[in-house]
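Before surveying the methods themselves, we first show a specimen of the format, giving the amino acid sequence and backbone structure tokens:

:::
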Amino acid sequence: MIRLLIIFLFLFSFATSADLQHDPDFVKAVYIEKISRFLTWTAEKEESSEFNLCISDNSAVEKYLPRLYNDRMIKKKHVNIIRTTDFENAIDCHILYVNKDNINEAKFLKNHAVVLIGNDDGLENMGTHINFFDEEKRVRFWINPKSYKDSGIRVNHLLLSIAKIVR
């Protein structure tokens, strides 16, 4: 239990102003980096020199990503924030933040070691690996183990222990 509490505090602690801490979109943008610590990609992606964080159109977290990741690293790699509408070229992304409008176009990426993260109700059952939701004024997330099964992505059991699992 103590181990889980330490993991939880590690995942969700971040020094920010009080106003930003209450903005769910900001919290979700922060979670992207925290969650990535518990993911392992294929050898090719793990060995790449940069971390490609891709976002689709109309992403709620887009306004916070440059502020958070311009001077930070994810998995000891410089972060490239890439806005994309062409999912054919998103194969080089480590993470692609999607929404309901484009999940069908992005589904083919789930077998290419691209973590699909969503932020709309129901996306956890539509092909995303991780989907954020709000619960009692807190940001939580679903993980769908079936969706990443054949992708080459591994999810640490500690992350699974604090997520809601799609069954």
In short: The chain has one domain: 2-165. Helices lie at 2-12, 18-21, 24-36, 43-47, 65-69, 103-106, 145-148, 157-162.
